[in-house]
Amino acid sequence: MSKQALIQFVEDQIVVKDFPKFRAGDTITVTYKIVEGQKERLQKFQGIVIKRSGQGKTGTFTIRKISNNIGVERCFPIASPMIENVEVNKYGVVRKSRIYYLRGLRGKKARIKEAKN
User: Fold this and answer.
1) DSSP collapsed to 3 states, 37-88
2) How far is CA 50 from its chain centroid?
3) CA gyration radius for the chain?
4) In Å, what is the CA distance from 116 to each residue of 8, 23, 91, 113?
5) Could you tell me which of 48, 45, 30 has the C-alpha nearest to residue 93?
6) Is the full-model pTM beyond 0.85?
7) Cα distance between residue 86 and residue 77, in whole Å
8) C-alpha–C-alpha distance, residues 44 and 52, integer Å
């Protein structure tokens, strides 16, 4: 089996769930599964999408939130079997696809304008 055929086989095995469309600047809630020994529990992570990268099954997205005055970022692969649900809370209006400038802002300056639907 060639290397390309093996890569194609693995990509065919990955199942991607249908998530709502979101992009940088949107506020989303990701519900993901945490396995601790024999127990499983669901945990929610809500924050602003600061980056989307990749396409299709190999794509990822990064979410940032402020927890106890400390910025927390988490990167999720789109095809992760641990992600149960993605819910879009607000659609934001930003001009860039990577909004890393939020890392240096606090309080009201870190707000993102909400999209008019």
Assistant:
1) CCEEEEEEEEEEEEEEECCHHHCEEEEEEEECCEEEEEEEECCCCCEEEEEE
2) 9
3) 16
4) 41, 15, 8, 9
5) 48
6) no
7) 12
8) 19
CA dihedral over 15, 52, 86, 67, signed as positive or negative: positive
CA distance to 25, 48, 76, 107, 115, per residue, from 94 (Å): 6, 11, 21, 17, 9
**DSSP summary character for residue 110:** G
3-state SS assignment for residue 27? strand
Q: Please state the length of the chain.
A: 117
* Mean pLDDT, rounded, for 45-65: 90
Helices (H) and strands (E) in the chain, counts: 1, 5
pLDDT at 16 over 80: no
DSSP-based three-state secondary structure for 108: helix
pLDDT grade for 56, boundaries at 50, 70 and 90: confident
Cα 116 from Cα 74, distance rounded (Å): 27
